[in-house]
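call fold(seq) -> tokens
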Amino acid sequence: MVRKKSDWYPGSIHHITCRGNRRSDLFKAEEDYIIFLAIVKEVMEKLPFELYSYCLMTNHIHLQIKTLDDSISQIMKRINQIYAQYFNKTYNYIGHLFQDRYHSEVIETDEQLLSTSRYIHLNPVRANMVKNPEEYPWSSYKIYVGEEKEKLIASERIFLYFKEENKHKLYRDFVESNIKIKVDLVQGGIVNGSSS
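ret:
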């Protein structure tokens, strides 16, 4: 996922990852997560874009963004710059907060769009922070499964692939079936190599 300037075009969709410098924490308190999301909203109002999904981990961030007229580099520069200023001031931090500016992977197919959303929402499960993705408070997953009201994200594009009448349940099944597959593989000895 190396960022390339040529990857951006109006309407492009990106999987963005930002990591803490030397893997250090980007969030030290609950308020930090709240501030980061407020900054995303503020930047969205000034440089309009659509946020399809997000997950804020302790030392890295995942965002799934559709650009409109402003480049992904303008959007991410503004978000990271404002948050770094807040963080540095709050924690008397000197130096770079982020490892790099950001990494971006352009999403070009429907399959990529859905698998990226699932990947982002399963991040806390893969990191063994929670058993189920809805237990993690700093992602957009609860919105997708209908446990929280719609805010900040534009879920319509992802929900196009699921029947309207039970879209929340179908999305949950789509994401959580990936957890079950991995558990079955581990229990069957396939992942750890004991199966022939």
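Confidence is low (pLDDT under 50) at residues 1-6, 183-187, 190-196.
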